[in-house]
Structures are given as C-alpha cells and as structure tokens.
Amino acid sequence: MRILLVGNYALDNQASMLRYQEMLRRSLALRGHQVETVQPSAFFGKLVNQPTLRKWLGYIDKYIRFPIELRSRAQGFDVVHVCDHSNSMYLAHAGGLPASITCHDLLAIRAAQGVYREQKISISGRIQQRWILKHLAGARHVVCVSANTATELAGLRGDAVRGVVIPNALSPECQAAKEEDVLSLRARVGLAADERYLFHVGGNQWYKNRLGVLRIYRGLLEGLGDGGRTLRLVMAGAKFSNEMREFAGANLAEGKAIEVVNPSDDEIWRLYTGATALLFPSLHEGFGWPLIEAQRCGCPVISSNRLPMTEVAGAAAVYIDPEDELGAATTIAENLGRLGELRQAGFENVRRFDADRIASAYEDFFAGVAKAGGEQPLP
C-alpha cells in the first residue's frame, strides 16, 4: 500500500507529534508498505525571529503554501493520513484520495469552548480551534489514541461514532538502561549511586500539574519523616516556572528537587530505569506516553485516578487524586511496599503497546480507508 503521512510544521517544535509520525512511518515501512512523509516547510516563518510575527508568517506557510503542495504530492498514493488533528484542515486538500486523521486529544478545542479556564485562548486561537473542530468533526476516518479521546470526540461531534481506537506504540529503542549508564547519569545530575528518587517528565502546560508534583512530594516527605530524608525528586523536561521555583525554594531543602532540562530520549530512559517510581499526576492527557515508557524500563508508576491514565497504565499503577496533594502523598506512602509488584505488572501491561501489534492495527485501518474510498464512512 502507498501511504502519505502529513506531518507538522517544523517551527512549531511539537516533539511528541514528530515522534508519533516517525513511529508510524517506520513501523509501516517495516511491514513492506511504501510510506512517505510531507509537512509544511518553513519559508516565510524563518524570515524573522520575533515570536508573534513568526507565528503569523508561519500561518502563510501552513495554510496557504502547503495545501497547494499537498494536493500535488498526494497523487499516486492509496491513502493520505494526517498525523495530528490540529491539522484537520489538510483533509480537504488530499487531492480526492481516501484520507484519514489521528486525534490525540481535545484539550485545545475544549479550552477554546471555555471548558478549561486554566488555558487562556486568544480570539484568533478560538477561531483557529473552531476551524480545526469543523474539519475534525466532518472527518470520515478517524484514529483516536485512547478510548477516552474517542468518547470525547463523539461528544463534540454529537453522534455515536467514536472512531477507531489505536493506542500509541512504544518505541523499540525504549528499554531499561544498563547499570553503568544509569550510574553515569546519576553522577551527572548530582545523585548518589544508591540514592532513591521519584521521577517526573513533562512540559509546563497547565494540565501537566508540575506544581502539583512538588506539592505532593513535599507532603510525602512530611509523612515519611526520617524515612524521606534520602528520597529526592528529579523533574525532567521544561525549566521550572517561576511559581515552581518559588515553591521549591520556600518549601524544600536545597537540592531536594533536581531539574534536568530538555533531556534526550536516552537520558529519560536512564532516569526511568534508576527511579524509585514515576510520579505523573496529570490533570488531563490525550494518552500519556511516559506511563508506558516508564513501565517498559521497569519503573513503577504513580498516576492520576482519571482517564486516560487508568486506561493506559491499567492495573499496573498506584492511582491518586491529583488535586488532593495530601491525600495523594498518603496513598503513595501506603503503597511504597508494592513497588516491586507494580514493576512486574508494568512489564505485562506494556505488551499491549508493542510496535508491531500497533502497526498491524494501522495496516488494517488503512486497508479499510482505501477500500471505503470517498463513498461511505467506515462503520
């Protein structure tokens, strides 16, 4: 089968979407399909460095220049697949070929509707999200990365069609690190060889609840008393926000919370491998990749008692209320003795996200899209 994947604009720096696109391209190519990728190139957007002006010039690249290119590039393929729902408008430029799309989450769309007051959306942003939803709601062939996302999409579409649920796959490179590599990274970030630490990875988006991570950690240290003296917190990803830095300075001893800014994938896998547990109290997610990455690396998972976290991590996690920090700390303390059991359960759970199994599901999906053509939507 000849499959054209439509990716994201490079200047938008959406690392998770680029990872998803590459996972899909590679896994389908390994199964013998002809897979190519195309994405908006930066022409106008790279002419300036001022963020606001660059954003608006980038819209010319994405919404004026690229649709013309896409209509031309699509010819000769069996299926065109848009890898990110935020690019749903490209479905209209697939050159009349069968087209499909992946919906990862509906956070921005629902924020634009006023559901999530924590995320401020400008007037132009609300217009853009309505445009995205219009094309996403009209899409015939939709993959959702979790059943929770599919249910939310059905609610926005106002129908019972939930789309095909195909979860994200684990990268084959994601593996528990060698002991010497873990020790090397520990030394680099200031951790002793035998020192225990909780690990968190994520950006500073409001729904990642990174200030909540610090609050839960403080509560856990207070509850453990002397038992918490050797337990540290490693937070990887974005730099601490001002609010996080102020909280840590006022409530935690110096050096208890360690920042690891913009780590590589290999460094993240080492940090999973050496961690006592992953602390991932997100308020919302479309999927939650760190949950299964941690489990693959033998890191027990502590996460929110909400969908899709419970859907993804399954029975192999300790679940907490992310907005009840003291209650969360108590639950964690009560379950520290179960971490070995959770580690083994995590190895079993991640079998569901094997890359070859996920590629097979996509193969069947694309075959259905090609067969349905432009006549009728999939049942």
User: Which stretches are low in confidence, meaning pLDDT under 50 for 5 or more residues running?
Assistant: 375-379
Main beta sheet: strand number and arrangement? 6 strands, parallel
CATH topology of the largest domain: Rossmann fold
Order of helices and strands: EHEHEEHHEHEHEHEHEHEHEHEHHH
Distance between the termini: 21 Å
Number of structural domains: 2
Report helical residue fraction.
40-55%
Biggest sheet, spatial arrangement of strands: 2-1-3-4-5-6
| Average predicted local confidence, pLDDT | 93
| Helix/strand structural class | alpha/beta
Tell me, briefly, the overall form: globular
What's the alpha carbon Rg, rounded to whole Å? 22 Å
CATH class of the largest domain, please? Answer: Alpha Beta
Please work out how many helical segments DSSP would assign: 14
Q: How many strand elements? A: 12
Classify the oligomer: single chain
Content of β-strand? 5-15%
Q: Going by CATH, what is the homologous superfamily of the largest domain?
A: Glycogen Phosphorylase B
Specify the CATH architecture of the largest domain.
Answer: 3-Layer(aba) Sandwich
